[in-house]
Amino acid sequence: MSVFEEFYGEKIMSVQVSYKKQTTLGIIGLLILFLIIELIANVWWVTQMSCEFEENEIFQQMDNEKKRQLCVDLYNIQTSGTELIPNQQSQTVSINNLGFRGEEFSIEKPSDTYRIFMLGGSTMFGYGATSDQTTIPGYLQESLKEFNSKYTIEVINAGIQGADSFSELNLLERKLINFAPDLVIIYDGWNDLRAENSAQKIQNNWKSVCELGNKKGFDTVVTLQPIAGFGNKQLTEQEMIYSATGQNYNGDLLINDFSEYEKYAINLDTLTGCTKSLNLVGVFDKETSPIYWDQGHVSDYGNYIVSQELYREILEILPITSQPQVQNFTNDTTKNDNEFYTQIRYAVSTYKTPLMLNSIFSFQLMQEKSVLDTNDNIPTKSGIKIFKTQSKIYNENSVSIIIKLLEDENNFQKKLEIITMNNDDNSVIPNVTYFLKIQKDDTIILSDFFFVENDVLILDVIPINSDSIEISGKRQYEHNAIIATESSAVKLSGPLLLPNEDYEFIIELRTVYDKSNWVFSLDGFSAKIVS
Q1: Cα 132 to Cα 65, 76, 120, 297, 498, distances in angstroms
Q2: Which of 118, 378, 412, 478 could cross-link to 386 by cystine, CB 3.0-4.6 Å?
């Protein structure tokens, strides 16, 4: 090799080594840059996360860091299609190796095991529950541990966010049947209503579940879940807002679909082929403390109440040899930190705002002093009918509602005038928000909020024999009520006040005297209207 070749050969090799080093360093630099960007993105993502329950009255006494952690844990849950991705762990949520929330269980069911699957959407999954143990399945599992049975009873949480009766049936047929269930509990309603699934469709899905149970040899319990404003719970101020503003997936007010939900309930009552069917819409009716943190999701305490109702209903189905007393909610039934769990239980069961305390005391006073008049049909001149509800006590004054029905000569257009009276001084109460339900033949045909700043709520009615009632009016009140003013009339058209028909008006007063003065004790007003 010549001196020239030796010299330039070494130089070329040196350049090649230098290029390799630069390339390697460049790749390492890019990886570090990507990692930094990813770290920044993760921090940014956490700051963008927002869970509605963080500002809810139920969670007021929970530490802010724990609320934030609960929100982050829920945001980080990963799904694949309609199933949860297995093996996810966080501080408040555990997804086992088979893709279900909660403890591990074997694919093959042991011979001494009785297996319960609980199907539903995010309310069954426990969105907002503070642990796996404070979901509906978690509480039910804890209750069943106290039994002396020849079987080990497993309760498996098969809930998944967004599931409705269609996806639940699909999950049962495709996956759950392979785990040899002995009992399947369905918890349905809210997501189907938000998806505008008809009562007939959801009933068909329920029938398919029960037929599959009869074919494969497992019991089925189908339940209709509670929704804020759809039962008779005395709602708190926040719950009232959730009820009034909750929407379906198309952005329409869900409260307007109340009559469809009643059809769900009717179809549930007539469901055949299932082991049991259970309407849970009124499961919270006796509760006055906060339960809902949006229109459908509930607190740990709400999950507990539902679990205990289910517990009582399935006792006769289970292979149990003895039946101890139902445990109290105050028992320590979770594996959470004791101090943290005590704070949650306190928040959901004893937290009271001044408004709530006032409401409760007003409600008790009303029970003691309420003047339960019969509905009055006051004689008037031709073309005008006046109806009066029973009286209630508010701030030591007797309050009642007067409904005036005016008809034109051709009976084509009618007018409703509704006023709220202070019977003690014979004055009209201003700034009233009415929650008005109109019922015909046990079916709710209208359910909505109306606000009137002046004395009289005027509703122009065009009776038409159609499928539903159309409302024409402006919603600009902060609580999503339709505004009735002298310059902006509210018009109703549809199957209302048809000739020679009877209707029941059921009215709750939500504000009186001032539109910010929310009350929850002035409900139960009713009058039978004969058109």
Answers
A1: 19, 15, 15, 15, 53
A2: 378
- The CA distances from residue 469 to 348, 429, 465, 472, in Å, are 38, 28, 10, 10
DSSP per position, 296-344? S-B-HHHHHHHHHHHHHHHTTTS-BS--PPPPPTTS--S-S-HHHHHHH
Euclidean distance between CA atoms 417 and 71, whole angstroms: 47
- Alpha carbon of residue 254 to chain centroid: 11
Q: How far apart are CA 449 and CA 229, in angstroms?
A: 12
What distances in angstroms separate CA 522 from CA 24, 415, 435, 480, 506, one per listed residue?
75, 25, 11, 19, 12
Q: Helix or strand or coil: residue 100? A: coil
Q: Which of 319, 323, 325, 317 is nearest to 150 (CA)?
A: 319
Q: Could you tell me what percentage of the chain is helix, strand and coil, using 3-state DSSP and rounding each to the nearest 5?
A: 35, 25, 40
Architecture of the domain spanning 359-530: Sandwich (2.60)
> Tell me: the pLDDT tens digits for 175-212?
999 999 999 999 999 999 999 999 999 999 999 999 99
Listed in order, the ranges of the chain carrying CATH 3.40.50.1110 are 85-350
| Angle (nearest 5°) at CA 233 between 231 and 239 | 100
Query: Mean pLDDT over residues 495-508, rounded?
Result: 90
487 or 137, higher pLDDT:
137
Write the CB contacts of 332 (distance below 8 Å, at least 6 apart in sequence): 338, 341
CA 347 to chain centre: 19
User: What's the average model confidence in pLDDT over 378-390?
Assistant: 70
pLDDT of residue 21: 72
Q: Which residue has the higher pLDDT, 323 or 440?
A: 440
CATH 3.40.50.1110 fits 85-350, yes or no: yes
> Helix H segments across 405-520?
none
Measured in residues, the chain has a length of: 531
Q: How many CB atoms lie within 10 A of CB 70?
A: 23
For the residues 93-109, what does the mean pLDDT come to? 95
Burial of 317 (0-12, 13-18, 19+ CB in 10 A): middle
Radius of gyration of the chain (CA): 30
Question: What contacts 2, CB < 8 A, 6 or more positions away?
Answer: none
Through-space distance between the first and last CA atoms of the chain, rounded to whole angstroms:
117
Instruction: Name the DSSP class of 12.
Output: H
DSSP string, 247-281: B-TTS-BGGGGHHHHHHHHHHHHT--SSSEEEE-T
Token digits of residue 399? 């309050």
φ/ψ of 309, rounded to 5, equals -65, -45
User: Model's pTM, two decimal places?
Assistant: 0.57
Say if residue 436 is exposed, middle or buried (CB neighbours under 10 Å; 0-12, 13-18, 19+): buried
Chain region(s) in the chain for CATH 2.60.40 = 359-530
User: Among residues 72, 76, 101, 71, which one has the least CA distance to residue 86?
Assistant: 101
Q: Which residues pair with 279 in a beta bridge?
A: 224
